[in-house]
Design a protein that fits this description.
Chain lengths: 330, 440
């Protein structure tokens, strides 16, 4: 991590540091190069070190970060806010209930207003897939997708990748099983692109009604596959990620019951025994303990669930840092 | 000056009369006077049509004019001007207006507006159910007497099979076809894109093919049971085409249509060509753009005559209806001004058989709705037919610029796309409109 440490800025006004990050926005992991992913992960490692040594920094003093959340969130919003404040940025938090359309103000008007107010970076969560793309096309501020519909959640994927790398080292050839409601999961989608770029094999697993059917023959170097068999998914896995099971999936008839889901797809110790010894257990949160993940597994010795949350702050610091610098250079 | 106009040297195509040759066309006032080689008419205004295709004006079974009720999206005046520019001289107006034409008084009011403002011939389509709510039947006999050429609830399928069967039975006795948007909302509700590769990749709620296919099957069965004239609006799935072919093989008088959009585009139009998904709201349409396999089946359906008509489903929207999140975008494409060029491009690529395509834009839609009984000769260049015709420059390439649309709706996924073929001039009821060479 030496090279990353040398890139890390000293406290004070944001210095202009050469980085290889040039993109205005971070909307998904599918357009990131391996170099960009590694840049963020290396930078996050440095952020984590420095944070432990120095606490709050002033690197992004004068940079205005606005979080604009059209959907509820605890960890992602708090994580972004913490990350921005630890870098010395000014943070404005906005929440909007329902869609921008129903509110009467369009998303485009909102982002243009925020840009006029002085926002440098917009962190957007929205219930409609693609909404941050619309926002990004209509503002010169940098847009970070903090989760859009069932589409993408790139910062979650990057923090998952960071956590995997910290625990497993080089990810080339590692098997990561993602279990649950893959079809509606933005976390799963962004993880596919980030983890396969890092050389992982990704196995997506869930009930037949909740796994994508057309990704099965996906040929993105053949490094992900889809299965409805949890035994197949966990067999030899280096890491197992359980996804949140939404209660409304039962109501809409996609699964017979939560009981059936637990029976067939819960990540529990018996199933975890199929994975590699010491395989890590992950969850993007918020968890339904006892539903998609057994309590003893969620809090077991190889669980990284709390680590993921802590790493999320460091990864978002790295992202905010590089995006703020890229904006200053524009 | 007499009322004579001579179009000389055109490549004349008149599918109804089996004409496909270099000929002259003489128009006398509002009617076709002669189609022959070397017509001499010294006192006629001569239009040199050398190098151009000359066809009967196009007939559209499915258009949305938005008036009354949604004039911010379009009016009878603006949208019939767009139709004219696109070569459509007869259009059938879908009833999704406010108020909806569900009795004689609303149709009479609509006809008054059409008489005052329309640039082309407009036939109203009346509702199947009161306020298109799907709960009770509209005043069907009143609507027939008031001049409605078909019944439809447009984008609202009649979900109750019993009510739909009753509507078919009554429509049969009135001699009026029913144009049905075949969809099972129990499967498609909430869907915004074809359920498949693109919807799963982009995290969009899926609109499965089975929602249309099931409804097509139901509607064919009920049409057979009642003996009614059923017209299936804007088919989008390969299986739907197969069901129609099967029904026709059994001797059923089922007609159907497909839009230029579904013939030209697939679900990929939503994602766009870039590395980053476009979430192009202008590619959101009901039924959704589907797979390449579906598109090929729809093309084959036109080429082999299984699908009768190419209908635009012209659906203008205001800018803000599309400049929003994909989930919230209004479905529909402003199609009049790109339809002919889209078809010409597909012909140029060898994907559409020209004879079949031209029939699907002229005589076939006329017959599907029985319009020849209302206006004799409509959709043909027969002597005495209305002087409705379109002149096309078939190899002229141009780039679609929605800002230059006459339609109030600039909502097209074809913006920036280069098409081959252009409408050069249109004659509607004997009045000539020249579009000039395209200046792109």
């Amino acid at each position: 991590m030496a090279s990353a440490a040398t890139r890390f800025p000293q406290p004070g006004p944001a210095p202009i540091v050469e980085t290889s990050w040039t993109a205005k926005d971070l909307l998904d992991t599918d357009t990131l190069s391996l170099a960009e992913i590694n840049l963020i992960l290396d930078q996050a490692g440095a952020m984590k070190d420095v944070r432990q040594r120095q606490g709050k920094l002033a690197t992004l003093r004068g940079v205005a970060v606005v979080t604009l959340f059209y959907e509820q969130s605890t960890r992602t919003r708090a994580s972004f806010e913490m990350a921005a404040k630890l870098l010395g940025a000014d943070v404005v938090n906005l929440t909007a209930s329902g869609s921008s359309v129903e509110k009467g103000e369009t998303l485009i008007d909102t982002v243009r207003t925020l840009e006029a107010i002085g926002a440098d970076l917009l962190v957007i969560r929205h219930g409609s897939s693609g909404a941050p793309y619309l926002a990004a096309r209509n503002t010169s501020a940098g847009v970070i997708n903090a989760g859009d519909g069932a589409h993408a959640h790139p910062t979650q994927a990057l923090l998952d990748a960071f956590t995997l790398r910290e625990n497993l080292g080089d990810l080339k050839g590692r098997r990561v099983a993602i279990v649950g409601d893959v079809l509606h999961s933005r976390v799963a989608r962004s993880n596919i692109w980030a983890l396969t770029a890092l050389g992982c094999s990704v196995i997506l697993c869930g009930p037949a009604t909740l796994i994508p059917r057309t990704l099965e023959d996906g040929t993105e170097e053949g490094r992900y596959m889809v299965t409805d068999s949890i035994e197949e998914a966990l067999d030899g896995a280096d890491a197992v990620m359980a996804l949140r099971m939404q209660r409304e999936r039962q109501e809409s008839g996609l699964i017979p019951s939560l009981r059936a889901y637990v029976r067939d797809y819960q990540v529990n110790s018996a199933r975890l025994a199929l994975a590699r010894p010491g395989a890590i257990v992950m969850h993007p949160g918020p968890m339904n303990e006892g539903i998609e993940i057994a309590q003893d597994v969620a809090h077991g010795i190889t669980s990284t669930i709390e680590e993921q949350v802590a790493n999320g702050v460091a990864v978002r610091m790295a992202i905010l840092y590089h995006m703020a610098l890229a904006r200053q250079r524009r | 000056m007499t009322g004579l106009t001579l179009f000389s040297g055109a490549h004349v195509i008149d599918p109804a009369n089996g004409i496909d040759a270099k000929l002259d066309v003489l128009v006398d006032g509002p009617v076709i006077a002669n189609v022959a080689a070397g017509i001499a008419a010294d006192d006629a205004r001569v239009v040199d049509a050398t190098g151009l295709l000359l066809l009967p004006g196009f007939v559209d079974l499915h258009a949305h004019l938005r008036e009354p009720g949604f004039e911010q999206k379009g009016t009878i005046e603006t949208e019939t001007a767009a139709a004219l520019r696109g070569g459509f001289t007869t259009i059938c107006a879908m009833p999704n207006t406010d108020p909806a034409p569900d009795d004689a008084s609303t149709v009479e009011a609509l006809k008054g507006r059409i008489g005052r403002d329309a640039h082309v011939r407009v036939f109203p389509i009346g509702c199947i159910t009161r306020e298109r709510a799907g709960l009770s039947l509209a005043e069907l006999s009143e609507l027939a007497d008031a001049g409605c050429v078909a019944f439809s609830d447009d984008g609202h399928p009649v979900t109750s099979p019993r009510l739909f069967r009753n509507a078919l039975a009554i429509s049969r006795s009135l001699g009026i076809p029913i144009s049905e948007h075949s969809d099972d909302p129990a499967l498609s509700a909430g869907g915004v894109a074809h359920e498949g590769r693109v919807s799963e990749r982009l995290g969009l709620r899926g609109y499965p093919a089975a929602a249309e296919i099931n409804a097509v099957a139901r509607n064919i069965e009920l049409a057979e049971a009642t003996g009614a004239r059923l017209h299936l609006a804007h088919l989008s799935c390969a299986r739907s085409v197969a069901l129609v072919a099967d029904a026709r093989a059994r001797g059923l008088n089922i007609t159907s249509e497909v839009t230029p959009s579904h013939l030209f585009l697939t679900e990929d139009a939503i994602a766009g060509p870039g590395r980053e998904p476009a979430y192009d709201t202008n590619a959101r349409i009901n039924p959704p753009l589907r797979t390449e396999e579906d598109r090929k089946a729809l093309l084959a359906g036109i080429n082999d005559g299984t699908i009768d008509a190419i209908a635009t489903d012209h659906a203008p929207h205001a800018t803000e209806d599309k400049l929003c999140e994909f989930d919230h975008a209004a479905p529909g494409i402003s199609c009049f001004e790109t339809a002919a060029a889209t078809i010409l491009t597909l012909i140029d690529r060898g994907e559409l058989d020209p004879a079949a395509a031209w029939a699907a834009l002229t005589i076939n839609p006329v017959r599907a709705f029985g319009l020849q009984h209302r206006v004799p000769g409509l959709g043909t260049l027969s002597v005495g037919a209305p002087a409705d015709l379109v002149l096309l420059a078939s190899s002229e390439a141009w780039t679609v610029d929605p800002a230059r649309f006459v339609s109030r709706g600039r909502n097209t996924p074809l913006g920036g796309i280069t098409l081959t073929g252009h409408v050069r001039a249109v004659m509607a009821s004997g009045k000539l409109w020249e579009m000039g060479a395209n200046d792109d």
